[in-house]
Design goal:
This protein has about 140 residues and is mostly helical. It has one domain. About 75% of the residues lie in helices and about 0% in strands. The radius of gyration is 16 Å and the shape is elongated. The N and C termini lie close together (about 10 Å).
C-alpha cells in the first residue's frame, strides 16, 4: 500500500483543529479557574508563548497522522481507538507525570490531564481512522 499524502494532510488538519478546539474548552474554560489559582508557578509572560503551543500542536497533529498511516492495517475506527490509546501511553502519561515531578502541581490536576489526554488522543485516533485511507 502506498501512503496517501492528500489524506494525511486532510487528517492532520482535522486533528489539529480538533486539538485546538478541545484544548481551548478543557484548558481555557474547564480548568481556567484551577490554572488561575496556580498562577504563582506559571511564567508571568506565558500567554506571549502560546503560539509555540499551537505550533507544537500543529507539528504533533501531522506526526500523529503520519505514524498512523505508516502502521495502517485497515481495521476501521477501532484501529483509531487503539492507536489513540497507545499514543496516549507514549506521550500523555510521561508528560503528565513529568510535569508533576517538575512543578508543585496538585495530583488531582494531573489525573484530570491524564483522563482528558486519553479521551483526546482516542478521539483524534478515531478522526484519523475515519479520514485516512491508503492511495489506490
Amino acid at each position: 500500500m502506498t501512503m496517501n499524502f492528500k489524506r494525511i494532510l486532510i487528517a492532520g488538519l482535522a486533528v489539529f483543529v480538533f486539538f485546538q478546539a478541545l484544548d481551548y474548552l478543557f484548558h481555557g474554560i474547564v480548568l481556567g479557574p484551577t490554572y488561575q489559582s496556580l498562577s504563582s508557578i506559571w511564567r508571568p509572560d506565558m500567554m506571549n508563548y502560546m503560539w509555540l503551543m499551537a505550533l507544537a500542536s500543529l507539528i504533533f497533529s501531522f506526526v500523529f497522522v503520519f505514524i498512523f498511516a505508516k502502521g495502517y492495517e485497515g481495521k476501521g475506527l477501532l484501529e483509531g481507538v487503539r492507536f489513540g490509546f497507545v499514543l496516549s501511553f507514549l506521550v500523555n502519561v510521561p508528560g503528565c507525570f513529568g510535569q508533576f515531578a517538575m512543578y508543585p502541581l496538585p495530583f488531582a490536576l494531573v489525573l484530570e490531564w491524564l483522563a482528558f489526554g486519553f479521551a483526546e488522543y482516542i478521539v483524534a485516533g478515531i478522526i484519523t481512522a475515519a479520514i485516512y485511507r491508503p492511495a489506490k
